[in-house]
C-alpha cells in the first residue's frame, strides 16, 4: 500500500509538472518609455546653423529639441515668424497670374518694416486677403516679393491687410531658450527692440519656462557688455550669462590650453578664437557643446526639466 501511494504521488507530480510546462509563459512586464522633456530653441544661425547646440542639448536634457527661426534672422524676423508681431501690406494689386510682385511690409500703425530677408521654417508660405502664396527676398534688388500659388481673380488691396503665416504651436508647458539679437542692426538703444521682440513671443504664447542667452560677440558689438547688462536687468533669473562663462571657464572646461591668440582675446574681453568658427562670430563644436551644458544646467536649476 505504501508503495502504491508513493507511485501515485509520483504520477501526480509528473502530471503537475507537465501541466505547468504547457502553460503559456508570462511575458516580462515592459516598462513605459521614459517621458522626454520638450525644448524649443528660438533664434538665428546659433540655433539653425550647420553647427549648433541643439543635438547636444537633446542628449544633455533628455529632450526633444525643436528649432525655430532662420540663419540670418533678426529678432524682428523671429517675432514675425512666430506671429507675435503682425505685418501688413497696403496699396498693392495681386494679379491673376502667379508672377511675383514686389511688396512692402508695414506694422499696424502703417510704418514700414524692413524684415524677412532670409528663409526659415515659418512665414515663407503665407496668405494675403485669402490668397496663398510665397514670400521671398531678392537680395540683388533688395526687395521682398509675393507670388501666389495658383492663378485666380485679381485682388486690389487698398488698406492695411494682414499677412498671415502658418499657426505656431508653442505649448506653454514646454521649456524655451532664446538665442536672438545677434543679427539685430546696432543703433543706440537697439537692445530694447530686441527685448520687445522676445517679450512679444513670451506674451503671445504665455511662456513662463524660458531662458534668454546673452549676446556673445564683442567683435560684433563693441558695447556687448552694456547690452548684456540690460538683458540681465530685464530677464533676471531667466538670463544666462554665457559670454562671461566663456571668458572665464570656457577653455578650461573643454580641456584646451589657451593659445597666444586666446590669451590676447581674453585680455581684450573677446571670445577666445579656439571656441569660434573662422568667421570669428559663430561658435564651433566646442562652443556649442558648452552652450548646451550651460542651458541644461540653467533649466534644471529653474526646475524646467523632469
Q: Can you walk through the features of this model?
A:
This protein is α/β, with parallel strands linked by helices. The protein folds into two domains: 35-82 and 168-242 and 285-306, 3-Layer(aba) Sandwich (Rossmann fold); 85-167. The chain has helices at residues 2-22, 45-48, 54-60, 75-81, 190-204, 224-235, 242-253, 260-267, 285-301, and strands spanning 37-43, 63-68, 87-89, 92-94, 101-103, 105-106, 112-113, 125-128, 131-138, 143-148, 155-157, 161-164, 175-179, 210-213, 239-240. The strands form four sheets. The chain has a six-stranded antiparallel sheet with strand order 3-12-8-9-10-5, with no helix packed on it. The protein has a five-stranded parallel sheet with strand order 2-1-13-14-15. A two-stranded antiparallel ribbon has the order 4-11. β9 and β10 (143-148) form a beta hairpin. α4 (75-81) packs parallel to α5 and α7 (242-253) crosses α9 (285-301). The radius of gyration is 29 Å and the shape is globular. 35% of the residues are buried.
In a few lines, what is going on in this structure?
With 306 residues, the protein is of the alpha/beta class. The protein folds into two domains: 35-82 and 168-242 and 285-306, Rossmann fold; 85-167. The protein contains nine helices and 15 strands.
Shape: globular
Q: Note the quaternary state here.
A: single chain
Largest sheet: 6 strands, antiparallel
CATH class designation of the largest domain: Alpha Beta
Order of helices and strands: HEHHEHEEEEEEEEEEEHEHEHHH
Write down the overall mean pLDDT.
91
Helical content band: 25-40%
Whole-number radius of gyration? 29 Å
The computed structural class is alpha/beta
Cα end-to-end separation: 69 Å
Total separate domains: 2
Judging by the overall fold, what is the CATH architecture of the largest domain? 3-Layer(aba) Sandwich
Amino acid at each position: 500500500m505504501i508503495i502504491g501511494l508513493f507511485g501515485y504521488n509520483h504520477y501526480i507530480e509528473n502530471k503537475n509538472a507537465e501541466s505547468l510546462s504547457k502553460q503559456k509563459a508570462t511575458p516580462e512586464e515592459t516598462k513605459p518609455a521614459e517621458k522626454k522633456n520638450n525644448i524649443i530653441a528660438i533664434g538665428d544661425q546659433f540655433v539653425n546653423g550647420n553647427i549648433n547646440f541643439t543635438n547636444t542639448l537633446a542628449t544633455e536634457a533628455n529632450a526633444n529639441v525643436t528649432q525655430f527661426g532662420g540663419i540670418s534672422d533678426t529678432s524682428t524676423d523671429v517675432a514675425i515668424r512666430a506671429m507675435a508681431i503682425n505685418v501688413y501690406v497696403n496699396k498693392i494689386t495681386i494679379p491673376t497670374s502667379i508672377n511675383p510682385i514686389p511688396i512692402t511690409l508695414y506694422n499696424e500703425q502703417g510704418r514700414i518694416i524692413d524684415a524677412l530677408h532670409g528663409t526659415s521654417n515659418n512665414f515663407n508660405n503665407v496668405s494675403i486677403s485669402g490668397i496663398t502664396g510665397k514670400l521671398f527676398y531678392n537680395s540683388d534688388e533688395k526687395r521682398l516679393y509675393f507670388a501666389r500659388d495658383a492663378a485666380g481673380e485679381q485682388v486690389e488691396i487698398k488698406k492695411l491687410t494682414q499677412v498671415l503665416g502658418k499657426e505656431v504651436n508653442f505649448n506653454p508647458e514646454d521649456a524655451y531658450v532664446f538665442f536672438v539679437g545677434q543679427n539685430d542692426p546696432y543703433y543706440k538703444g537697439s537692445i530694447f527692440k530686441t527685448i520687445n521682440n522676445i517679450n512679444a513671443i513670451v506674451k503671445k504664447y504665455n511662456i513662463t519656462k524660458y531662458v534668454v542667452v546673452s549676446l556673445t560677440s564683442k567683435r560684433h558689438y563693441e558695447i556687448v557688455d552694456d547690452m548684456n547688462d540690460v538683458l540681465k536687468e530685464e530677464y533676471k533669473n531667466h538670463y544666462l550669462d554665457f559670454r562671461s562663462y566663456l571668458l572665464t571657464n570656457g577653455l578650461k572646461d573643454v580641456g584646451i590650453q589657451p593659445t597666444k591668440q586666446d590669451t590676447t582675446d581674453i585680455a581684450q574681453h573677446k571670445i577666445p578664437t579656439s571656441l569660434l568658427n573662422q568667421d570669428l562670430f559663430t561658435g564651433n563644436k566646442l562652443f556649442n557643446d558648452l552652450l548646451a551644458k550651460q542651458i541644461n544646467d540653467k533649466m534644471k536649476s529653474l526646475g524646467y526639466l523632469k
